Amino acid sequence: MKIRNFTGLIIVIASILGLLIYWREYATRDQVEVYQVVLWQVGIWMPWLLGFMALQGLEKWSRNIKNNLFLLITASLILIVLHFGWFFWLSSNASPYLHLEGSKFGVYRYFFIFWTFIDLGLVWFIIDKLKTSEHEKQDPPLLLELTRGGNTVFCEPSQIHLLAAENYYTKLFTSEGVFVMRRPLKSFLEVLPDRTFQKIHRSTIINLEQVSELARGNGSTLEVVMKDGTRKRVSKNYIKEVKRFFKDRTY
């Protein structure tokens, strides 16, 4: 889940809560404006954007740790405690209900019930999305169905050496031969495992595990030499990513 989508979710939650609180506290409507309540709620919930990024970073860092779910839950509980501290501080200083009858520190008691359930719901939502995203990346399609003549060939991603765009078609060079599919090149990036397949040019995707050599081309350009001897030029936009892949996997 992208931070932009999560930001939209937070704004929706804050807006709905602000409207509900304003509607519920009908006795103070002549003293409080609805926009004040909504802005206050946006301020209350925006720190969860930092919480989302923190959990996202922790999930990526702890993928190889056996009990990484326990780490995520522990971190989530810490974030809830920190969020309550932020909620208390902001409400004590900027709540539109501050100093009004029946409120203490700018809040009413039932607010805590709402915030606790929503905090727990956000934690569950974030962890579920992160784990689902991880699962989707680790379990790409096992087989690609390719056709040649009247025959159907089932090909594993590891059997694909490189893919090249040709107008509205994509040519796949595999250990089973060359195939042509009427699909755009970018559609294959969505299904092939991103740990091994890398776009090196706007018209070329390679299987990095099929590369035998990185060679210097003309001037400062870089070329990849495939195990079958094929040479492909790497666009300047992708040179760093290709070099980083091999740097992280060599001794």
Description of the molecule:
By secondary structure, this protein is an alpha+beta fold. The protein contains seven helices and ten strands. It has helices at residues 3-24, 34-45, 48-61, 68-94, 110-138, 185-189, 239-248; strands at 144-148, 151-155, 160-166, 169-174, 177-181, 197-201, 204-207, 211-216, 222-226, 231-234. The strands form three sheets. Strands 5-4-3-7-6 form a five-stranded antiparallel β-sheet. α1 (3-24) runs antiparallel to α3, α3 packs antiparallel against α4 and α4 runs antiparallel to α5. The two termini are 34 Å apart. The model has no long low-confidence stretch (mean pLDDT 85). Residues 144-248 form the HTH LytTR-type domain. The chain crosses the membrane at residues 7-23, 35-55, 67-88, 108-127.
Radius of gyration: 26 Å
Number of domains: 2
Overall morphology: elongated
In the sheet with the most strands, the strands line up as: 5-4-3-7-6
* Low-confidence blocks of residues: none
One letter per element, helices H and strands E, the order comes to HHHHHEEEEEHEEEEEH
Span between N and C termini?
34 Å
Quick check: average pLDDT?
85
Percent of residues in beta strands: 15-25%
Q: How helical, in percent, are the residues?
A: 40-55%
Domain HTH LytTR-type: 144-248
Pfam family, one: LytTR
InterPro entries: LytR-like (IPR046947), LytTR_DNA-bd_dom (IPR007492)
Transmembrane segments: 7-23, 35-55, 67-88, 108-127
